[in-house]
């Protein structure tokens, strides 16, 4: 066993084929055009990287014709940084256009020929993954039909798996003829399937099948193996014999384990939504994440590592650690994986490494890579086109060096809290040893809180609500407990609560009244926030502050971005502009979020709720047709703002749902989302609405920094669902 647990890394690098289109993760994230990404990876402190030299990319058109230029430069850069490379040759792909997973004659030999050329060119690379997750790829391509060659047949599935196993064996033989010291790092998704008694046979089969990749490579699938007869029934007996006679045992077992990896099968389909319904040839059942239904929860990462160690007694690396969730949950998943590995090493299990995955985030996994989809940030967020380190980068460095971790990493993740149960709980019968809750170390019950100002306001309550949901310890203060106009009050609160950061969600919000109460508005919105930020800075604390689209005067031809100069037209806008100027002049970590026209189902006094109430009552509603804004859904705003705060971001950020509308058009969109009569909406000039403060005619916000909220359509959908639930409650009352 190596002396220390190592920190590895890897960018999501899938090239999978859907019909005649290749879905390339590096194209989507822009990595091909940014070789300096590799410098950022090195700065984290990773010792080894899973990095692609993919067959589809290097030899796309015909065998023997290779496009080395781009990959040469990147591999050389990694070598210059002293980072060991685990070379991946196929990652959820079916090979170039001249072969595919069911090409029994061409796939394996073609991959071996390609592997030989790669090994000759990069003879110093000692670790290889010729095929990533063969079992998973075979399932998605030849059993479920999601990826090319889009087959749904068990016999084709086993052939696709064996072709990848043969490809791995022949590739490693070819590589070792060049470099006899080459080692096989064989990755596979590993979880466990649980089921009701009626589905125990299906669960038993899946719990044997999950080992197929490694069992085949170790030469264990011989007569008497539980999978032998099933595969042999499809005419594969001779191929199984050949693999068993000439195995290729992995040098390192690479475990990819996700919160979705462990499944629960339930014959009581009525307990689950339609999208979870499925089955086999003889039974229909629901297939859901085990963590969402089992009580006690499944063993998780610790459980599968222990099983793999008991089965193979071969060194293990956790080769993908990623959780597509809010930032603090990503931190907790990574910290828990590291602690789990350290604990198992102390118990004698040879766990070599934990892998930061994916370094540049990933796109489209919500569609199973069948179409463009949601981008999930990873260690870096590349949504702006330029990589931005998230809090995961700092945590990775802390894990590698033993430095202090972000305080939120110590709290239990959602998978450790009651919120994990999405469906009626099912008791999991198992030996008591499997019920233990120590698969992660004990987490701090509280820790330093996030201090939130603005207990009576929409934003303050929204931040507190989000923190409760996300298990972020916090203190929500009202003015009597923290008066932003009083230095003594600020100092006492900061010293008493000892927060790790401060959210200033307080301030003057009445735009029209500010015209006649300018001094009070400036005290609350300008002088107070700067005073608070300065005193927080003296204590080493970050702050999050909220500004407004009204810092702009409406003269721009396009949407306003973060670099545009303020030009306010009213007192409220001027107060926010002065706040921004004061905060930007400070040296500390001060995040300023500009937003606009926010709406929420949790606040009775915002525009969207006012529209809903009026139209539900059959009353007309007047809204300005000559003032254009970008509405912002508060739950979305708060979620992304908290992520940015956790990441340690600073400066100006625009956060809206990025759709420009007039207030009247916004009212119509609210009406449409709730199926309310839009004819009751009266589009009028703003001058008719008795607005004391002058308003700009057009102040749409856009971002040049890449922190995007969901679409306004998604926001209105969420708002409408909540409003309809609330309406039903009111009617029952």
TrEMBL record:
RmlD-like substrate binding domain residues are: 450-703
Instruction: List the CDD domains.
Output: dTDP_HR_like_SDR_e (cd05254)
Annotated pathway = Carbohydrate biosynthesis; dTDP-L-rhamnose biosynthesis
Question: Which enzyme class?
Answer: oxidoreductase
Cofactor comment text:
Binds 1 Mg(2+) ion per monomer.
Q: Does the keyword Protease apply?
A: no
| Record's catalysed reaction(s) | dTDP-beta-L-rhamnose + NADP(+) = dTDP-4-dehydro-beta-L-rhamnose + NADPH + H(+)
Query: Under which EC number(s) is this enzyme classified?
Result: 1.1.1.133
Question: What SUPFAM superfamilies has UniProt attached to this entry?
Answer: (Trans)glycosidases, NAD(P)-binding Rossmann-fold domains
The membrane spanning regions, by residue number, are none
Which cofactors are named for this entry? Mg(2+)
Q: Which GO terms describe its molecular function?
A: dTDP-4-dehydrorhamnose reductase activity; hydrolase activity, hydrolyzing O-glycosyl compounds
Q: Which UniProt keywords apply?
A: NADP, Oxidoreductase
Which GO terms are recorded in the biological process aspect for this UniProt protein? carbohydrate metabolic process
Recorded family membership: Belongs to the dTDP-4-dehydrorhamnose reductase family.
User: What is this protein for, i.e. what is its function?
Assistant: Catalyzes the reduction of dTDP-6-deoxy-L-lyxo-4-hexulose to yield dTDP-L-rhamnose.
- This protein is called dTDP-4-dehydrorhamnose reductase
């Amino acid at each position: 066993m190596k002396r220390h647990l190592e920190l590895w890394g890897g960018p999501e690098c899938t090239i999978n084929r859907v019909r005649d289109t290749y879905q390339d993760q590096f194209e989507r994230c822009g990595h091909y055009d940014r070789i300096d990404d590799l410098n950022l990876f090195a700065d984290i402190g990773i010792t080894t990287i899973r990095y692609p030299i993919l067959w589809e990319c290097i030899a796309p058109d015909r065998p023997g014709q290779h496009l080395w230029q781009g990959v040469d430069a990147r591999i050389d850069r990694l070598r210059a940084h002293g980072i060991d490379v685990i070379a991946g040759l196929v990652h959820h792909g079916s090979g170039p256009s001249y072969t595919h997973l069911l090409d029994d004659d061409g796939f394996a030999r073609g991959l071996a020929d390609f592997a030989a050329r790669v090994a000759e060119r990069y003879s110093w690379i000692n670790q290889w993954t010729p095929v990533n997750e063969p079992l998973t790829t075979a399932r998605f391509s030849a059993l479920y039909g999601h990826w090319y060659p889009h087959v749904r047949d068990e016999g084709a599935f086993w052939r696709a798996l064996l072709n990848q196993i043969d490809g791995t064996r022949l590739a490693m033989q070819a590589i070792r003829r060049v470099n006899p010291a080459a080692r096989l790092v064989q990755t596979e998704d590993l979880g466990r399937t649980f089921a009701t008694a009626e589905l125990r046979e299906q669960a038993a089969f899946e719990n044997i099948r999950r080992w197929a990749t490694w069992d085949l490579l170790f030469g264990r699938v011989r007569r008497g193996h539980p999978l032998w007869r099933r595969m042999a029934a499809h005419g594969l007996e001779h191929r199984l014999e050949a693999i068993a006679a000439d195995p290729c045992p992995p040098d390192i077992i690479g475990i990819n384990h996700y919160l979705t990896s462990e499944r629960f099968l339930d014959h009581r389909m009525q307990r689950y939504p339609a999208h979870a319904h499925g089955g086999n040839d003889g039974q229909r059942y629901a297939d859901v994440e085990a963590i969402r239904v089992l009580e006690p929860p499944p063993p998780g990462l610790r459980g599968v590592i222990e099983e793999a160690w008991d089965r193979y007694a071969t060194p293990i690396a956790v080769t993908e650690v990623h959780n597509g969730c809010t930032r603090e949950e990503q931190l907790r998943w990574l910290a828990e994986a590291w602690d789990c590995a350290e604990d198992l090493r102390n118990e004698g299990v040879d766990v070599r490494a934990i892998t930061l995955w994916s370094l540049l985030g990933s796109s489209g996994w919500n569609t199973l890579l069948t179409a463009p989809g949601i981008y999930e940030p990873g260690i870096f967020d590349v949504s702006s086109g330029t990589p931005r380190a998230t809090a995961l980068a700092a945590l990775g460095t802390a894990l590698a060096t033993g430095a202090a971790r972000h305080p939120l990493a110590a709290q239990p993740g959602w998978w450790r809290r009651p919120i994990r149960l999405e469906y009626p709980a099912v008791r999991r019968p198992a030996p008591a040893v499997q019920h233990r809750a120590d698969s992660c170390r004990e987490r701090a019950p509280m820790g330093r809180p996030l201090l939130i100002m603005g207990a009576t306001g929409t934003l303050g309550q929204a931040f507190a609500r989000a923190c409760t949901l996300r298990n972020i310890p916090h203190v929500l203060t009202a003015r009597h407990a923290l008066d932003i106009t009083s230095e003594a009050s600020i100092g006492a609160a900061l010293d008493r609560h000892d927060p790790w950061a401060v959210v200033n969600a307080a301030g003057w919000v009445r735009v029209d009244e500010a015209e006649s109460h300018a001094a009070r508005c400036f005290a609350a919105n300008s002088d107070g926030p700067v005073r608070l930020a300065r005193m927080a800075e003296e204590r080493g604390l970050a702050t999050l502050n909220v500004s407004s689209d009204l810092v702009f005067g409406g003269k721009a031809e396009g949407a306003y971005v973060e670099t545009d100069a303020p030009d306010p037209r009213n007192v409220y806008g001027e107060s926010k502009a002065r706040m921004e100027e004061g905060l930007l002049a400070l040296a500390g970590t001060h995040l300023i979020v500009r937003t606009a026209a926010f709406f929420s189902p949790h606040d009775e006094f915002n525009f969207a709720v006012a529209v809903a109430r009026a139209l539900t009552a059959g009353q007309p509603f007047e809204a300005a047709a000559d003032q254009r804004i970008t509405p912002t859904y508060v739950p979305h705003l708060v979620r992304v703002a908290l992520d940015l705060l956790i990441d340690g971001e600073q400066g100006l950020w625009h956060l809206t749902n990025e759709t420009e509308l007039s207030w009247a058009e916004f009212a119509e969109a609210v009406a449409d989302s709730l199926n309310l009569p839009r004819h009751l909406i009266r589009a009028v000039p703003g001058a008719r609405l008795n607005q004391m403060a002058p308003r700009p005619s057009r102040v749409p916000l856009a971002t040049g920094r890449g922190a995007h909220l969901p679409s306004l359509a998604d926001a209105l959908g969420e708002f409408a669902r909540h409003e309809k639930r609330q309406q039903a409650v009111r009617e029952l009352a």
